[in-house]
Amino acid sequence: MSATPKIEPIGAKVPEPRQNDPDTLARQIVEKLTYSICKHPEQARKYDWLRAVTLVVRDRIIDHWFPSTDRVRDSGDKRVYYLSMEFLIGRMLRDAINNLQLTGPIREALKRYNVELDMVELLEPDAALGNGGLGRLAACFMESMASTGVPGVGYGIRYVHGFFRQEIAEGAQVELPETWLVHGNPWEFERRDSSYEIGFGGKVLTQQEPGKPPRHVWRPAERVLAVAFDTPIVGWRGSQVNTLRLWSAQAVDPILLDAFNSGDHIGALVESNKAEAITRVLYPADSHQAGQELRLRQEYFFSAASLQDIIRRHLGENDSLDNLADKVAIQLNDTHPAVSVAELMRLLVDVHGYEWAKAWEITRATFGYTNHTLLPEALEHWPINLFERLLPRQMQIIYQINADVIREASQTGFDGAQISAISLIDEGNGRRVRMGQLAFVGSHAVNGVSALHTELMKETVFRNLHELYPERIQNKTNGVTPRRWLMECNPGLTGLLTEAIGPGFLDDIEKLRDADGLADDAAFREKFAAVKRANKGRLADLISDRLAITIDPGAIFDIQVKRIHEYKRQFLNIIEAIALYNQIRAHPEKDWTPRVKIFAGKAAPSYVQAKEIIHLANDVARVVNSDPSVRDLLKIVFIPNYNVSLAEIIMPAADLSEQISTAGLEASGTGNMKFALNGALTIGTLDGANVEMLEHLGEDNIFIFGLTADEVAQRRREAHSGRSIIDETPLLREALDAISAGVFAPESPARYHSLVSNLYNNDWWMICADFEAYWNTQRELDGLFLTQDAWQSKAVHNTARMGWFSSDRSIREYAKDIWQAGPGKVR
Ligand SMILES: *Cc1c(COP(=O)(O)O)cnc(C)c1O
């Protein structure tokens, strides 16, 4: 065979740099319309323009993608692999255009054809491959890895149907399928050459040669193909482009031709349907467990495919797997990919012939694990018999890891109770594999996502493992990317800040501090308030268009948007709204501050109480909004279908951010960060990252109320209930009485009986316990809003002091303390 001639890719370097002026861009957009979409520009529809612009931008990303990939390969630098079941990305075009600095020229180019860039960007469907905070964190981290120069690859699942679309009918949530791929997805590249067979079931053969340890060979009964789809993730200023590789499941044999030919047309496709089911839908479960066989299949499927891919790449560049941990860091985003620990052990021992102890050393040095919740029902555990049936060899490996860990614990002097607490097998309710324990023991670093959450992890879920491995747990407080959550969603504020402090903060967000002194500058405060006012106008228009509710941009926009969950306490907020409604009617003479309470969020379809809370919010909204006696002093709005794109309109428009979870329950929160960065004041509990926000913002600039995590734990030990508090608090009692009497649901007065009786009987989420403190803090905020100078000054301090909560800072900490990877290894 003759040597392959060297072929240079076309693009930014050779033969000539790509031009980014409006003329060139305009010409290229028309070229794409013509030759890639085959439309005459005069007949182009909206979606054709979206596709053409995307393709023009994509070419420029590819120009950066090749050199980024080459650079990492040639340097031999350590790569970071971020394994996550969820990536809640949202739209990609605006992010890419912004990060490539093309916003101005593309807007200009499109104007020549009378096309608005904003209109085009809004056509793109959200990539909603996640439920909430955990998935959005993974998306922010991907963008920040590219922006800070960490060579990162994200691995996840290419769900055909992402997070369900929510509609509200008669006040209740209705779930509809989400279809982000119907117009095709120009961002992804299918890589048929990167596909792997993934096994399930079958049996394990043991080969015993004299004088040697036994060798195990797994013979799966079923095989499914994992096919890679790559999406480029472009960092700030295009300096680096990383890859998000999502796996799609396909049958090894797409059609059983024998069956088809013999007339069984449906049966011929059964295998194919069964395989494809694995990546068909995202489980709509947030902070609670989705215990289904299909879920375990999804978890193993993407973990096993990713590990095969990582090993193949490593062996293409290295002689053996001995140095795997020097070249590879794998981060497990929650326990969903925790089976990777057992799978890597299987690959090292069974396939690559490593002895157990060496394999364990490599495995542990390679993995890091991020915990996201302390809720016991959210810590995954699989019934042993299910696990064994699907993954027989991995089950054996888990038993062996467990035996090693238990031996180590016994030698350390652990007693029986301590040992059963650290065991990877829960011997209680029907024997289960504990995925949190597996992830913990298989990782060299385990992290929580805020300072408080990390401390609570040490005291609660992982108390005994922390005793056995006291160096292993560390904290990495979450962050959000300032590109999406300031520059792109709030161009008005970004422009104002650039004018006031220069553009330095665009490259180093902590420079926002330079704006701190402007809180005392009346002229600046006025401009800051004007930007907020315009953003509120934009949200008011959206609410008017979608819901036909008129709201006054002069009122306090008091906003709670996040997954609906009892611990997040939307119910507390609704009760306060009802109490306020009662008070406004009882005391019309008082000087009430006009308020609009805005809610959005989805409930897991099987989570009855969460759905009741949505229903209640909508019922209360209907009654309050149509009551002329409240005039315009109180409006309540539930905006359906909360997603990333809606968040991008909501965050810049908030005056007040509701972060009111029961203390000790919210691991970090990131919504809290997005709001404050955009100049909203926070009313919140001492929970998650609110605690650190208090430290950075100062106590004058955040409104903290309620029980602390310790006090909540204490009350729960004392079997606290709400009854006596309700009896002694007329505001609360009258609000609950109104709910119970059917004031908000006359057609079905008993609808909320169980929600209310839970408060009387145990008040598990401390809604009664915190009500009065919450009410008083809200009234304090009412007063503050009337003094606009004071309010706006605090709002400016919020924006100026939130730079630390950037995911760039989080990623630099992971890179330095956990991955030992990234620019200069440590920064
Ligand atoms: C940021 C974000 C979340 C997380 O919100 P929390 O308030 O931290 O729970 C959830 N969903 C979407 C769409 C988000 O953008």
TrEMBL record:
One record GO biological process: glycogen catabolic process
EC identifiers of the protein: 2.4.1.1
Catalysis performed (reactions): [(1->4)-alpha-D-glucosyl](n) + phosphate = [(1->4)-alpha-D-glucosyl](n-1) + alpha-D-glucose 1-phosphate
A Gene Ontology molecular function term of the record: glycogen phosphorylase activity
Coiled coil: none
Matches recorded under CDD domains: GT35_Glycogen_Phosphorylase
Record flagged with keyword Cell membrane: no
Cell location: Cytoplasm
Cofactor(s) the record lists: pyridoxal 5'-phosphate
Residues annotated with N6-(pyridoxal phosphate)lysine modification: 674
Alphabetized InterPro entries for the sequence: Glycg_phsphrylas, Glyco_trans_35, Pyridoxal_P_attach_site
Annotated region described as Disordered, given as residue ranges: 1-21
GO CC annotation: cytoplasm
Record keywords, A-Z: Allosteric enzyme, Carbohydrate metabolism, Cytoplasm, Glycosyltransferase, Pyridoxal phosphate, Transferase
One Pfam assignment: Phosphorylase
Function: Phosphorylase is an important allosteric enzyme in carbohydrate metabolism. Enzymes from different sources differ in their regulatory mechanisms and in their natural substrates. However, all known phosphorylases share catalytic and structural properties.
Sequence similarity: Belongs to the glycogen phosphorylase family.
Name of the protein: Alpha-1,4 glucan phosphorylase
Lineage: Bacteria, Pseudomonadati, Pseudomonadota, Alphaproteobacteria, Hyphomicrobiales
Gene: glgP
